[in-house]
Structure formats: C-alpha cells, structure tokens
Amino acid sequence: MTKKRDKRRTPQKRSNKPTPATMIAEIASRAPAAPEYAFGSAAEHYDAALDALRADDAEAAVGALQAALDANPRDTDSLALYAELASDKPAELLTALQVVEGVARAELGEATFSEDRGYFWGLIETRPYMRLKSRIAELLQSQGDTPAAIAEYAEMLALNPNDNQGVRDPLLGLYLATDALERADALMRDYEEDASAVMCWGRLLWHLLSGETGETGETGETAERALTEAQQANIFVAPLLLGALEPPVELPAMYTPGGANEAVIAVDYLGDAWWGRSDPTPLEWLAQKVWL
How do residues 203-214 score in pLDDT, each as one tens digit? Predict the structure, then answer.
C-alpha cells in the first residue's frame, strides 16, 4: 500500500517570479523605441504617469509609465517610479532602487561625477540622480542602516553643497545620534547661516554631548546661550522633546519657520539623538532649564 505524502511536509516550490530589481535590469537593457513609436519623450510620459497616480487612475499610470520606458528604457525617474510600484517591501524597493542608481550612474558617465561635482542640482540632467539618492538614503535610514544612510547623505552634499534638497537636516540628526560630534560640528559650521529649528536645536544638543553645559567652552558659547537661540528659532521643540506635546501621526507636508509644524519635523530628525541614548543628561538638563 502506497502512503500518501503529507502535504504539510512538502517543500514549497520556489517562485520563478522575477524581482523588481531583476525586471529593472532587464528593462534597462532594452533598446529605446524608434522615434516614430515613442510618441513623445520619456519625461512627458513620466509626468503623465504622476498625474494619473494623483488621480488614483492606476491603469492610466501604468500605461504612461510603460510608454516612458519604451521611449527611454534607462530614464532614471521612470525606472525609480517602476521600482516604487513593483515593490511590495521596503527592502525589495531599496534593492531595486540601487539597481536604478547603477543604471543612472552609467548613463551620466563617470566624468560627470568629477567635472560637474558640486553642481548636481543646478544641472537638469543630474537632478533625477539626486532625487534617487535622496530616496535611497531615506530607505537606508528607515531600515536602520545608519552608516550607509550617512554615506548617502554626505555624498549628496558633496555633489550639491547648496543642499537644495535639505539633506543636512537628517544628516545632522544621524551624526548626533551616533556621537559623531566632530562631523556634526563641521556640518553646522558649513551651514552656520541656517538658523532653522533643526540646526539650532542640534547645536544645543552638540553642546550638551560635548560637556559644555555651564562655563563657556572652547567654542566661546555656552549651552545656555545655545538654548536661548534654539528657543528663539522654535519654541515648540522643547515641549515635544520632553513629552508635554504629542506629535501628530503623520509628518506635516509644509511648515512655517518658528511654527509648530517645523518643530514636528525638527524632532523627527533629531529625536533619536535626544531620546535614543542611555545617558539622560541632555533631556534632564533641558527639563531643568525650560518652563513648559
């Protein structure tokens, strides 16, 4: 008598479904459609795909994105959007976007990274690469790969010191959270004209982590003065840091300098640096100095 195999012990068949990263590599290897079949530029179709997504028309978005990739299979923005739509998990998306980065870098050419270094936001052809780098850095940070996220943000600042994308803010938070105080100090000095909530409250924390809580330190500035400047920049940050105010579930899409929304964003960038340490001294010092 033949025994029936226990289905519960039957090994699962491996899925032959290609990953988003594999599909992107395959798309990028294709030749562009002939001009008479492209029906417009990849950028035009990409914009149409974004418009369709905003209108919740997934079918139209996919069609427009396919047209964009037919027109130019190596268009950075279109490949990045394909990765976003095709990926189910953040890790899968990150891998796919890193493939896109390789394609984008090859398209730009290595000479671009030396000849145009420092102007990558000022050139239209390099902006998609910078948008891609920003997304990759965000994913790395959200997945806890702090060293890789720091490297991405730092490279973005090297490519575009004007920092039109504002990556100095998350980078400062990561430097302070990892006690990279020299790097944090250098970053704040590079953008010392920036009196935003992130920079001012980051400078205060830098003082506290450096042990400059009372007498004037080597910088010639006391922590008390740094606190005054931080409060002047945004008075809503301290209540959020100390738990007197609850942050909203979602980050605000816009903010006004000095307003509550800016404080929420600043605490999002700096929160781990303030809260995620075993030594409670910075928060205790702050609690003693401010009236809530």
Answer: 999 999 998 655
